[in-house]
Amino acid sequence: MNLKWIILTLALVMYLLVIIFQNKKVWMTSAAALITIVLGFLAQGGALAGNVFEPLGGLGELAHHIFLELINWNILMIYVGSMIIAALFIYSRVPARIADALVTISPSTGIAVILILAMTGIISIFVENVATVLVMAPIALALSKKLKLNPVPFMIGLALMSNLEGTATLVGDPPSMIFASYAHYTFNDFFVHQGKISIFFFIQAGLIVGCIFFYCFFSKAKEKASVDKEPVISYLPLWLLLIMIGGLAVISFLTPELGYSSGCFVLGLGLLGLLWYRLSQKKSPAEIWTLVKELDWETIAFLIGIFVVVGAISETGLLDDFAGWLAHITGGSKFAGFILILAFSILISGFVDNVPYIIVMLPVAGSLATGLGIQKELLMFALLIGSCLGGNLTPFGASANVVAMGILKKEGHPITFPGFLKISAPFTILTTAAAAALLWAIWA
User: How many degrees, rounded to 5, is the angle at CA 53 between CA 48 and CA 54?
Assistant: First the structure.
């Protein structure tokens, strides 16, 4: 049997099992990656027909290709380093202090809620979405209880806003990191690319529309809110976060390719933060181990498996075949291709993990753009926007949504699937439409 079709079958089975067994997705992708590696070695030995790895010429080069080329260690280092800094930032209680300040300066409760939601989104640009929801949830619940507000739209808003803004920069979310790796984007390219505004500003268009949408829920709350100020433990994690942002911007100017410099820099900052946590905060090795252990290692393992499997799929030519089919059904229409990628991404990501989806679809979007004779950015940006914002569509479309639902249930405000959809569906449609409209106006 041709290796091309074996790998396709393996990938389809893997995706099916990931969808069915969400809690075991790391096991599924790791097993698929291991089988892919074994198939590569068998192909080198001539045991399989259709050897897509043959140009590598030897087992040593095959191993080098799989472990140092298919697996993007720079992206993984950025993710681990930024997770450590984010964990320390939450520990510092600076986010809670900022929220307190926003409530104090707001002329009304309605404005205070919108500012907190916007702040949640901004924090989520640099902090993992679930962590952002967890640190902001106590603030939202306390404010709702004190002013007798319905906490349901407030809590759902925290999740939706965090998912929305996680797309805005290279360090915001795994899909953005994957996009940067594939498109060879630096940190600065997320703001301006080829002299045009880039993905960051498209997401901010969605943020503005999202704030207006939620203001409709809270505009009647006119009274002035007040809260007790949260004490700050230390501002050093905030400085580490700012140094990370500034450092990535400088590295982007100095090196046009990601290389390993960005990953080493962010991981180094994270390790420096752990050293501060140990010495300045006088934390025991057990407490440091607890912080490290609670990082999102599942996503790291998940990404490694996906990198290997999808890398093999790409090298078989299957993704180019799929892109050709999409170009055929769009009839060569640029707008049809744009809407197809955007709508398909929203629907898929509302129900399926967007990490493997975007890894598969990025080369497809690029090839489709080439086939339609348009700039790749138009369709790749549409893919990124649709796959990330589409996670807001359903209660289980993103981990932050699941966490928000769990908190509401624990607080005695359980919400049904239709109840969540009543808020999430119009929010997703409006924010995606705003981001997509600006994208089309600039890049079409």
Answer: 80
Instruction: Record the tokens describing residue 303, joined without a space.
Output: 């990404």
Tell me which amino acid residue 68 is. L
The pTM of the full predicted model, rounded to 2 decimals, is: 0.74
CA distance 361 to 366: 8
**What gap in Å lies between CA 221 and CA 112, rounded to an integer?**
10
Distance CA 123, CA 357 (A): 25
CA distance 12 to 8: 6
**CA end-to-end distance (rounded Å), the chain:** 43
Helices (H), ranges, 49-198 = 59-65, 73-91, 94-105, 109-124, 129-147, 151-165, 174-183
Partners of 381 in the beta sheet? none
Which residues contact residue 394 at a Cβ distance below 8 angstroms, ignoring those fewer than 6 apart?
A: 350, 351, 401, 417, 420, 421, 424
Distances (CA, A) of 88 to 56, 166, 405: 43, 18, 25
How many residues does this entry show for the chain?
A: 444
> CA-CA distance, 441 to 12, in Å (whole number)?
36
419 is written with which tokens?
A: 């109840």
Q: How far apart are CA 405 and CA 419, in angstroms?
A: 11
CB 373, CB 111: distance < 8 Å = no
All residue ranges of the chain with pLDDT < 70 are 1-3, 19, 22, 40-70, 221, 224-228, 252, 255-259, 310-311, 313-324, 352-353
For 205, the token pair is 């268009």
Rounded Cα gap, residues 310 and 359, in angstroms: 7
Q: What span, in angstroms and rounded, lies between the C-alpha atoms of 132 and 122?
A: 10
Beta carbons within 8 Å of 190's beta carbon, 6+ residues apart: 168, 169, 170, 176, 180, 198, 199, 200
- 401, amino acid identity: N
HEC string for 24-40:
HHHHHHHHHHHHHHHHH
Q: What DSSP assignment string belongs to 109-130?
A: HHHHHHHHHHHHHHHHTTS-HH
Strand partners, 193: 196
